[in-house]
Design brief:
Elements (H helix, E strand, L loop, with lengths): L4 E6 L13 H12 L3 E6 L2 E2 L11 H5 L4 E4 L2 E4 L2 E2 L6 H22 L6 E5 L1 H15 L3 E5 L2 H4 L5 H13 L2 E4 L2 H9 L7 E3 L14 H7 L5 E6 L8 H7 L6 E6 L5 H10 L6 E5 L6 H7 L2 E4 L8 H8 L4 E3 L5 H4 L6 E3 L5 H13 L4 H8 L5 H16 L12
Helix pairs in contact: 3-4, 4-6, 8-11, 9-14, 12-15
């Protein structure tokens, strides 16, 4: 057998001990790739520098609690720190990421770690930083575009220019949806240079559970909608709360944490639906199958997504979805067994989609069967094929680099 491809995965979107749900989709894809036996990986996942681990500083203190090095799912993850500068930090972030990671990567190579290419997730700032690191270390770079890095950040002049320059120099470009590929092409990248490899779903972790048991455990009764994600404006949790006025028989469970929690609670009280809304906070990824299984429908009212993993996770548990008709969502919700797309991203759009879904709900087994088409196997094969093609054009390193 040929030697495994050796990659260095580089991303600020990666789970850690203090933030176990952060960027879990990147970890999932990498774990399935490594499980194939065709690839070996080490991870460099920079985190912002913060001086205090005191919880009095809120979410920023979590960064101080991230270990410098940790093991997760058989992989070693290194967490160099990089400075975040208020107001102007967006323009400086790629340079700060690259500079702060340089020492870590040099140390890895001195310790005998050899890698064939950079596997960068999230084009800006991560991919731009990886492009510079690739140049410094003489390694090809593969970038994966995942959402706002392509459909939002290029609206800013300087980041757009850096994104375009880095994509043009990349050895390979992956997008997680066709919509993101189209947007990447609009940035001036040749269509043939972009490969769509959508996210998959772990069909063993996310599978239907005994609904009676999990509903009793979670104290869920009646028709229940589920909304999952950070409590921030673009996730649209407020729209789902507002929709309850037109869905008097429905309860709502919101899983997630974030800065808008108090506003969402206040909104539910103002609208007189607080008794039908439960905000249960963030939950470990491993516990989400019971929430999906207990719900009658997942509602995703986001204004922007690249490829929403929660949709497939819910479907894999047999739960149909109601999703906003934006970006990659139509590529996921493409059959009645999957659920419904909203005609408009409004409370009334949610009400209409929910009424249509519950008037003719799909069999939960059919929803699960639909999700089974989205395993990680195709994505893993696509990555291996792309990496192999790139390395067939670039000599692989066999001795320790002279870079110090």
């Amino acid at each position: 057998m040929r030697d495994p491809i050796r990659i260095l995965t580089f991303s600020t979107l990666y789970p850690n001990e203090a933030q176990p749900n952060h960027g879990v989709f990147v970890e999932n894809r990498l774990c399935h790739l490594v499980a194939s036996g065709a690839v070996e990986a080490v991870v460099v996942a920079p985190v912002p520098y913060f001086p205090s681990s005191s919880r009095a500083f809120g979410r920023w203190s979590a960064y101080a609690r991230v270990p410098k090095v940790e093991r997760r799912n058989g992989l070693t993850i290194h967490h160099p720190r990089y400075p975040v500068v208020p107001k102007i930090g967006m323009n400086l972030a790629p340079a700060q990421l690259a500079a702060s990671s340089l020492h870590t990567i040099r140390r890895l190579r001195r310790d005998g770690h050899v890698f064939d290419l950079f596997d960068a997730h999230y084009v800006y700032p991560d991919g731009v930083a990886a492009a510079w690191l690739g140049k410094w270390f003489g390694k090809p770079v593969v970038m994966t575009a995942r959402g706002t890095d392509i459909n939002f950040i290029p609206r800013f002049r300087l980041p757009r220019r850096m994104i375009q320059q880095s994509l043009a120099k990349a050895a390979g470009i992956i997008t997680v949806s066709q919509a993101l590929k189209d947007a990447t092409v609009e940035l001036g990248i040749a269509p043939e240079a972009v490969r769509v490899l959508r996210n998959g779903v772990d069909l063993e972790r996310f599978r239907p559970m005994d609904r009676c048991r999990v509903r009793a455990k979670l104290a869920i009764d009646g028709i229940t909608l589920l909304s999952v994600g950070h409590l921030i404006e673009r996730k649209g949790h407020d729209l789902v709360i507002r929709a309850l006025a037109g869905l008097p028989d429905c309860q709502l469970v919101i899983v997630g944490e974030g800065p808008e929690r108090a506003q969402l609670e206040a909104l539910a009280t103002t609208l007189g639906v607080a008794s039908r809304v439960r905000l249960v906070g963030a939950k470990p990824h491993g516990e989400m199958a019971q929430y999906y299984s207990a719900a009658d429908a997942l509602v995703l009212a986001s204004s922007r997504e690249g490829w929403a993993n929660v949709l497939l996770e819910a479907m894999a548990c047999g739960t149909p979805v109601i999703a906003s008709n934006i970006w990659g969502n139509p590529e996921v919700v493409a059959h009645p067994a999957a659920g419904r797309l909203m005609h408009e991203r409004t409370p009334s759009g949610i009400v209409e989609a929910a009424q249509d879904l519950f008037a003719s709900p799909p069999d939960r087994k059919a929803t699960r069967q639909y999700a089974e088409k989205f395993s990680w196997d195709e994505t893993t094969r696509g990555q291996i094929e792309l990496f192999s093609q790139i390395l067939s054009r670039a000599p692989r390193e066999v001795a320790q680099s002279a870079i110090r």
